[in-house]
Amino acid sequence: MIYSLAPMEGITGHTFRRVHAECFGALDRYYTPFLAPPRVGSSFGGKNLKEIDPANNEGLNVIPQLLTKNADAFVWAARELAELGYAEVNLNLGCPSGTVVSKGKGSGFLRNLDELEVFLRDVCERSPIPVSVKTRLGLEDDAEYERILELYRSLPLAELIVHPRVQKDRYQGKPRWEPYGETLARAPFPVAYNGDIFGEEDQAALVAAYPQTRHIMLGRGLLANPALARMLTGGAPASASELKRFHDKLFCAYLDEIGGNAVFRMKEWWFYARCAFTDSMAVHRAVRKARKVEEYETAVERVFRTEPLAPVARFHG
Ligand SMILES: Cc1cc2nc3c(=O)[nH]c(=O)nc-3n(C[C@H](O)[C@H](O)[C@H](O)COP(=O)(O)O)c2cc1C
Predict the structure, then answer these.
(1) What angle, rounded to 10 degrees, do the helices at 177-186 and 145-153 form?
(2) 23-27 contacts: CB < 8 A, separation 24 or more?
(3) 8 near 223, Cβ under 8 Å?
(4) Is there a contact between 232 and 313 (Cβ–Cβ < 8 Å)?
(5) 95 annotated active-site
(6) Which option is the CATH number for 2-232: 1.20.1250.20, 3.20.20.70, 3.10.20.30, 3.20.20.150?
(7) Which of 15, 35, 209, 305 has its CA 20 to 30 Å from the CA of residue 114?
(8) Would you say the CB of residue 196 lies under 6 angstroms from ligand 1?
């Protein structure tokens, strides 16, 4: 089985990937959170450049993800990525955020299949590196997926990652496995599954239903339980000391990168990581009020000293 880390804007950036791989072993693949392509003729800069700088991704198999509906910008960015040594580029057709969707990007691009078809044919032909897609089933209704899948099937995609929800679900409700199974059965290219794989039993059920499953992308489950990929291959859960070591390295790395704002970045992680503790509400309360680095350190020290780990670390909303 191939395991990859989901792109998660604001969370699974280069610092998280590096520290996670150092503490829990590298996953097979990492997808960057979505990047807007640079203007045609210019290079990636600022935060986006840091994200794809090969020096920040050494030793990891990273696939950059782009969010755009402009084919020239996509192809230009793909050329820049190829020059940096990347071997694949991923297109985001899943983002459900209102501001993205209203601009016809992310899952909003699924509203206009004629335009999407022209875009995809063009970028598949002109991109110097293979193009993969991460998709939802549609915007409102699963039935939209029939036409969407037909379109994908007619293209030379490197891979299709299916998050089997529609835009209006956001991240709520059960992912629908049937359309994923349908994709596995009918797609002429490799298919990956993403959505609510939070523990071994979820993987076992998915693989029992769809034994051809070959690539699982992990998101919130791995943030709540950083040892999840290890456990899915029969390894041990994270011990308290492993979790603390991971936390400390992550916090230090963020402090180096963004100074005092590291506290706020860590609080995003705690939204998921609290699930590793028996009393996740107590952990949430302890960490939530911290603003300054010292307050934060004191709160976290108390959490690790007083809060027992949950018997099973599993994401719950
Ligand atoms: C905070 C957050 C940020 C996300 N950012 C991205 C993103 O940049 N690109 C993308 O394709 N999906 C993004 N996603 C969706 C995830 O990649 C993934 O599809 C989703 O979390 C479902 O998988 P899971 O159930 O394993 O978490 C994001 C999700 C969350 C919760």
Answers:
(1) 20
(2) 23/226, 23/242, 23/245, 23/246, 23/249, 24/226, 24/227, 24/229, 24/230, 24/238, 24/242, 24/246, 25/229, 25/230, 26/59, 26/60, 26/61, 27/3, 27/218, 27/229
(3) yes
(4) no
(5) yes
(6) 3.20.20.70
(7) 35
(8) yes
CB of residue 9 inside a 6 A radius of ligand 1: yes
Cα(151)–Cα(146) distance, integer angstroms: 9
Query: Which amino acid does the sequence have at 309?
Result: L
Nearest residue by C-alpha to atom 29 in ligand 1: 8
User: What average pLDDT does range 89-115 have in this prediction?
Assistant: 98
On whether 163 is known to bind a ligand per the annotation, the reply is: yes
Strands (E), the chain: 2-5, 29-31, 62-63, 65-66, 89-93, 131-135, 160-162, 191-194, 215-218
Would you call 273 helix, strand, or coil by DSSP? helix
Distance 7 CA to ligand 1 centre (A): 6
pLDDT digits (tens, 9 = 90+) for 123-164: 999 999 999 999 999 999 999 999 999 999 999 999 999 999
How are strands ordered across the β-sheet holding 191-194?
62-63, 29-31, 2-5, 215-218, 191-194, 160-162, 131-135, 89-93, 65-66
pLDDT in tens, 49-95: 999 999 999 999 999 999 999 999 999 999 999 999 999 999 999 99
